[in-house]
Amino acid sequence: MSDFAFNIPKNNFQDWQLELAETLLKNFNIDDHNLVDILHDFQATFGYIDKTLIPLLAKFFNLSNAEVHGVVSFYHDFRSTKPASYVLKICQAESCQAMGSELLTTELKTALDIDFHETNIAADITLEPVYCLGNCSCSPNLMINSQIISRLNSGKLKLILQNLKAAQND
Ligand code: FES
After folding, report:
1. Among 29, 49, 66, 74, which is least packed by CB within 10 angstroms?
2. How far is CA 80 from CA 9, 51, 147, 165, in A?
3. Residue 64 within a domain
4. The total number of structural domains that make up the chain
5. Are 63 and 91 in the same domain?
6. For residue 31, is pLDDT > 90?
7. Is the residue at 149 inside a domain?
8. Residue 138 Cβ contacting ligand 1 at under 6 Å
9. Residue 66 C-alpha to ligand 1 middle, in angstroms?
């Protein structure tokens, strides 16, 4: 365990710019993309769904603002604020639960002093739940930005937090 180390790049989201969003939207073909796909693409670019994007998408899909807002709020994956440099998603689905993710989640929340969908600003970490990462055979799983850490345990979790803290000073 002592040799466990990783180097995970920080999130590199663009600052929200309405003009950039309008340009990106022009590249989508309404026949090939549905609203959820486009929301995922925007979140991958900006890190969250800015509220000023709602009317743009409503116009694009010929929907009401309320309909678009309803889709955004239905999916837990969409954020309404920009996340920290590191987004930690700990799996809450059945296989990971069976392998101890509940206790690890409590440890993580306690160590960071935050709940799900919150950010520890000093640690530059946002904590979120996720419901299966498709890696059940190596449960329990944690995703840091786009990297999955498998077979998580208490010792590994402590090392991860130490690594992320050290990365703050890089
Ligand atoms: S249940 Fe956690 S990865 Fe599938």
Report:
1. 29
2. 22, 7, 22, 25
3. yes
4. 2
5. no
6. no
7. yes
8. no
9. 33
